[in-house]
């Protein structure tokens, strides 16, 4: 089969098509003929040599796929054969075939486009776990999402609104702020022009927000804490602004804040299976009935994965970048 990988870390141009063996599913896995694969920031960081795959995972990039189940492991129910699914995977998505744990797959409704399905698992699993499980967000609360026009950001806005949250977001241009408002954000702040701490203080009448979903870290953490109300929750999922933060722990104590964070890729199969079950019960119906659809940016053919990475690194995309794998 054809896959896109790299021999040595580097810029986007190190990504090259190669011919490798089709993987075989283990007893709990399915083999998916990949139609589309989502492109995510962790793919870029892996290509740069800063985010190695977990032990036993494919070295080929790609953490989410859509396609048809064409082979089954011995423990997988026979009815999965031939199903169209999207799946969260630990690697291997940039290829014509990819294995996925059977319980990390979500079955597609007939009307869902495969390209949209490939844009869902990584952001959906990440947002659900971190906003609703680690951040304990509930109806009537206010959520601050940084990077509101990224794949994670757009998903967080849409899920937040679907579960009756007020959603505030930041973005780097007036155009992106307008895009975030179209997705559903109640307030979108151009962080290059305005102080988001002061804007949030005004918007919430000095009360602050209940939950922050932070992808920046670095010097944003202290500013996020200033935005949080008493009993607020700060959830870190990326460190694009640097891994170290200097904060005033007296504020953490007096506000009784919770500071937490997580990564998803290296979590156990059982953890991700339980997360998939919760998503299937609580969030997946919103996608099955079309109430939520992913915000799509651009679709590149698999052999142009380097161009897809370059677009992500340029930071101009709005929503999800996807690779078309199967020939049409």
TrEMBL record:
Q: Which InterPro entries match?
A: ADH-like_C (IPR013149), ADH-like_N (IPR013154), ER (IPR020843), GroES-like_sf (IPR011032), NAD(P)-bd_dom_sf (IPR036291), Quinone_OxRdtase_PIG3 (IPR014189)
- Domain Enoyl reductase (ER) residues, every copy: 10-323
Q: Name one Pfam family in it.
A: ADH_N
The record's SMART domains line, in alphabetical order, gives: PKS_ER
Q: Give the source species.
A: Parapontixanthobacter aurantiacus
Protein name per Swiss-Prot or TrEMBL: Zinc-binding dehydrogenase
Cite the entry's keywords alphabetically.
NADP, Oxidoreductase
The Swiss-Prot or TrEMBL record annotates one GO molecular function as: NADPH binding
Higher taxonomy: Bacteria, Pseudomonadati, Pseudomonadota, Alphaproteobacteria, Sphingomonadales
What highest taxon heads this organism's lineage? Bacteria
């Amino acid at each position: 089969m054809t896959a896109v990988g790299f021999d040595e870390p580097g810029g986007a141009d190190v990504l090259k098509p190669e011919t490798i063996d089709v993987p075989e599913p283990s007893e709990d896995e399915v083999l998916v003929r990949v139609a589309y694969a989502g492109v995510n920031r962790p793919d870029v960081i892996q290509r740069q040599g800063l985010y190695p795959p977990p032990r036993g995972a494919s070295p080929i990039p790609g953490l989410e796929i859509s396609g048809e189940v064409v082979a089954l492991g011995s423990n997988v129910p026979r009815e999965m054969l031939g199903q169209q699914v999207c799946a969260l995977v630990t690697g291997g998505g940039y290829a014509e075939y990819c294995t996925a744990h059977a319980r990390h797959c979500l079955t597609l409704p007939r009307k869902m486009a495969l390209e949209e399905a490939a844009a869902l698992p990584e952001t959906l699993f990440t947002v659900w776990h971190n906003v609703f499980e680690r951040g304990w967000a509930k109806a009537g609360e206010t959520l601050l999402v940084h990077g509101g026009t990224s794949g994670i950001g757009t998903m967080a806005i849409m899920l937040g609104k679907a579960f009756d949250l007020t959603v505030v977001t930041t973005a780097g241009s007036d155009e992106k702020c307008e895009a975030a408002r179209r997705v559903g954000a109640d307030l979108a702040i151009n962080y290059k022009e305005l102080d988001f701490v002061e804007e949030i203080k005004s918007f919430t009448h000095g009360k602050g927000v209940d939950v922050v979903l932070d992808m920046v870290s670095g010097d944003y953490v202290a500013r996020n804490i200033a935005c949080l109300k008493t009993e607020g929750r700060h959830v870190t999922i990326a460190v694009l602004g640097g891994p170290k933060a200097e904060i005033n722990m007296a504020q953490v104590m007096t506000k009784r804040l919770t500071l937490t964070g997580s990564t998803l890729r290296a979590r156990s199969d059982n953890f991700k299976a339980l997360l998939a079950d919760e998503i299937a019960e609580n969030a997946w119906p919103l996608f099955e009935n079309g109430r939520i659809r992913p915000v799509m940016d651009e679709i590149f053919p698999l052999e142009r994965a380097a161009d897809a990475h370059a677009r992500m690194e340029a930071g101009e995309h709005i929503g999800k970048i996807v690779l078309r794998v199967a020939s049409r």
